[in-house]
Design goal:
single chain; 209 residues; alpha+beta; Immunoglobulin-like; Type 1 dockerin domain; 2 domains; 5 helices; 20% helix; flat
């Protein structure tokens, strides 16, 4: 198969969606705001890529430099930067793209949250709305109605969903958008723990996620 590499012009089209505000104590997967997979799919690019993440003020928010899981620490304003390096089939580095968000506000006041943060759960039980008193224990997903575990959106949780989650964790094929939100079963960013949870559910070792 002929390799198709990212061009400089295509790299310029990679961008963040508006993040808005997050709560202190809230965790957000930043890769869901980046349109890398859309650019790759639209142009038939065969390159793989990796992202290194950073925040402008680590006292206000922390970020996992590999997974891109952002967590609000205290009230303030930050920007998030992604350095995306693309690799050809032989593993040789090609284009490197740097992108930065607009200002993201970390707040303890839920009324300041961006309207896109509509689907809310407790970090402990995946349960109710954010009207509970301890807002520091809430996490958010930006997709209303996403069924946890149903990554391929076929209405069922099957081995295909397990494989999609595993491919994301092993960086064979990165998930974005609703698929990424569905893969984050435990609400702590997509990891091997989510793969195991999905596998145990599909194999009927556990009856729920």
């Amino acid at each position: 198969m002929k390799e198709v590499h990212l061009t400089e012009e295509q790299g310029e089209k990679i961008e963040f969606e508006k993040v808005g505000a997050i709560l202190k104590g809230q965790s957000v997967q930043m890769s869901q705001f980046l349109n890398v997979e859309e650019i790759i799919g639209a142009n038939g690019i065969t390159d793989t890529y990796e992202i290194k993440w950073a925040v402008s003020d680590e006292e206000v928010a922390s970020i996992d430099t590999v997974s891109g899981l952002l967590k609000g620490v205290k009230e303030g304003k930050i920007k998030v930067k992604a350095v995306i390096t693309f690799f050809d089939g032989a593993g040789k580095a090609g284009e490197t793209v740097e992108k930065e968000t607009e200002i993201v506000t970390v707040t303890s006041n839920g009324s300041n949250l961006t309207p896109s943060l509509t689907s809310v759960k407790r970090s402990t039980d995946g349960g109710a709305t954010w009207s509970v008193s301890d807002k520091s224990k809430l996490t958010f997903t930006n997709y209303f109605g996403v069924k946890k575990g149903d990554i391929d959106k076929d209405g069922e949780i099957t081995m295909n969903d397990v494989i999609l989650c595993l491919n994301h964790v092993s960086k064979k094929k990165i998930l974005t958008g609703e698929a990424l939100a569905a893969a984050d079963v435990d609400g702590n960013g997509v990891s091997m723990n989510d793969v195991i949870k999905l596998l145990n559910f599909v194999s009927k070792k556990n009856s729920d996620l």
